Amino acid sequence: MEAVDLARETVARELGVEADAFAVQKVEAVEWRDTSLGCPKKGMSYAPVIVPGYRVVLEHEGRAHDVHIGGGRAVRCESSSPRATVSADTALAAARAAGRAREDLARRLGVTTATVKVRRLKWATWPDASLGCAEPNTTYPQVETEGLLVELEVAGKTHEYHAAGERVVPCPGSNF
């Protein structure tokens, strides 16, 4: 697989070892939410576009190496968590997603957005492109999708939305 080869070559070059010295621990298809490939560096700005790619975890001498692939390049993440650092772009994307969810809920309930309170924002990874809110009789790409869980409250009732990129969807069970 090209992604594994690229991951091995990238880490081997950085560490000065042979590429075949790495054991593959995990390979998963993902959609990165910006061009940082889930590994933002402080002080850098990234285009907020969905980048299809892979997360490859390699092991060498008892140490795991997390490598993110996308757009023809590989990035070795210093942290094992792709969301360990929140860039300004990522924070802005979260605020926009919450705003779109608030507007949608206010429209559905016939209330003002001022009455819709954000209770919780949490980064999440869903097993497919349905964002965990699958519509009946609809097929979704089977690719792990990172995004945001948005929990809203109106008049004591909780409503849940899931977001990824520009998509914001209400989840079944939200009482509209």
What does this entry look like structurally?
- With 176 residues, this protein is of the alpha+beta class.
- 20% of the residues lie in helices and 38% in strands.
- The protein folds into two domains: 2-77, Roll (Nuclear Transport Factor 2, Chain: A); 88-170, no CATH class.
- Strands 1, 2, 3, 4, 5, 6, 7 and 8 form an eight-stranded mixed beta sheet that branches.
- It is elongated, with a radius of gyration of 19 Å.
Features:
single chain, alpha+beta, 8 strands, elongated
**Number of structural units classed as domains:** 2
Tally of DSSP β-strands = 8
Q: Kindly estimate the percentage of residues that lie in beta strands according to DSSP.
A: 35-45%
- Return the structural class: alpha+beta
Sequence stretches where pLDDT stays below 50 over 5 or more residues: 79-87
Average pLDDT, rounded to a whole number, is 84
**What is the terminal-to-terminal distance?**
46 Å
Number of helices: 2
Which helices and strands, and how do they pair?
Elements: H1 2-15, E1 23-32, E2 51-60, E3 63-70, E4 73-77, H2 88-109, E5 117-126, E6 144-154, E7 157-164, E8 167-170
Parallel strand pairs: 1-6
Antiparallel strand pairs: 1-2, 2-3, 3-4, 5-6, 6-7, 7-8
Short summary of the structure?
By secondary structure, this protein is an alpha+beta fold.
